Amino acid sequence: xxxxxxxxxxxKESGKKIxxxxxxxxxxxxxxxxxxxxxxxxxxxxxxxxxxxEKIPKELFRRxxxxxxxxxxxxxxxxxxxxxxxxxxxxDLTNKCNMHCKxxxxxxxxxxxxxxxxxxxxxxxxxxxxxxxxxxxxxxxQPWGGEPLLELESILLMKKxxxxxxxxxxxxxxxxxxxxxxxxxxxxxxxxxxxxISIDGFSKVHDSQRVFDCGKATHNIVEKNLLLAKEKYKDKxxxxxxxxxxxxxxxxxxxxxxxxxxxxxNVKFNFVHKSMFSDCEELCLSNDEISDAELRMLNKIVExxxxxxxxxxxxxxxxxxxxxxxxxxxxxxxxxCCGGKKMIVFDMMGNIYPCELTDTPTENIxxxxxxxxxxxxxxxASRNRDYFIPKKANVCETCEWYVFCxxxxxxxAISCGKRPPEIDMVECAVNKALYPALVELxxxxxxxxxxxxGFEAL
Length: 458
Known about the structure:
Layout: E1 2-6, E2 9-10, E3 17-18, E4 21-26, E5 29-33, E6 40-44, H1 48-53, H2 58-66, H3 71-78, E7 88-92, H4 117-134, E8 138-144, H5 152-161, E9 168-175, H6 182-190, E10 193-198, H7 203-206, H8 219-233, E11 238-243, H9 251-261, E12 266-271, H10 287-306, E13 312-313, H11 314-325, E14 343-346, E15 351-353, E16 366-367, H12 374-384, H13 402-405, H14 410-415, H15 425-444, H16 446-453
Parallel strand pairs: 7-8, 7-14, 8-9, 9-10, 10-11, 11-12, 12-13
Antiparallel strand pairs: 1-4, 2-3, 4-5, 5-6, 14-15, 15-16
């Protein structure tokens, strides 16, 4: 695949300035990419001659103008920061957990605390009033922990209480799968609560890092309950896999297992990172290992789809959407970290945080009993907390993918001892490997792109 820059020029036909952009070309097709706005246009390669002549046909100029390639539109598209309007809420139900994962990012097991019923009622009222005041059409709620299903009745109470007028509420829960009996699955399904199940691969790799407190293996129970849940949820069931040094070398086999044996359609892979609460540094991959694992994952997913197994990975799908549609579809990967701006977390005392992994006094930005509104609380914090400082490094200046990552995950950077404006190097490693590979896939295998998205986009 060829890659080269086209410098800005004045279009002779319209007299307007076309901004500089990047061209990716292969097999007589090209993708032109505006690194300032994140927008793309797909063209036949013969159109490139029109750029050389600096005279753009009217139909192409209209496309360029609508996608932010014309200078007088560029200022609008360059403003990539998320607006402050939280729409995804997590509520910490418990510190209890029935497992002892080696890379756990939370301080579970330190106490046996769970949220009180009165606090659940107050948090639900707070969320409902906020939704009605801001006239939100859609919000998402995720109870979590610890293991959230240890507090199933609290989850069902939240589902009953959060019903703001005019707002559609989407509920989901991520679970280790141990408590997914048929009765529990039925309750969750009947209450329209989506589930994601943590499973780190087949038994050998899963049991190397996801065990009970006594050290006993958990895979057989998780797999059995996952298949039970799949009977009810069908293809709407999702899974979460944490990639570590233990299982990264088995990514191809794990995807084979997911697609061919478990018949999964929707999976998600997250790379482990340092934690303040567990000694998991030996499980963390280097940046080169992360890049390699990401590309191997993509190649295997493409191979499986070509064989008829329609499996898609969540983070890859989000980044395809970033390239094709430049839409906000993910809190972490569409417009950089939107913690606090699009996402809010409540702890068991009603304290407010910008992310589920920032529940320390340093990152607390308010409380539900404060007199100020949620948006005022976030705006105040954004002015005096370094968590909200835009992240950027020298390497970002020339990186075409910065428009999407904005310096990456704030929590992951903080966990590595970096405070903003320092960047998250894990996301940097992923994006530098993955985005060029996705561009090439768009140009050469549009059918696979459609399969990964789940609809016909190309």
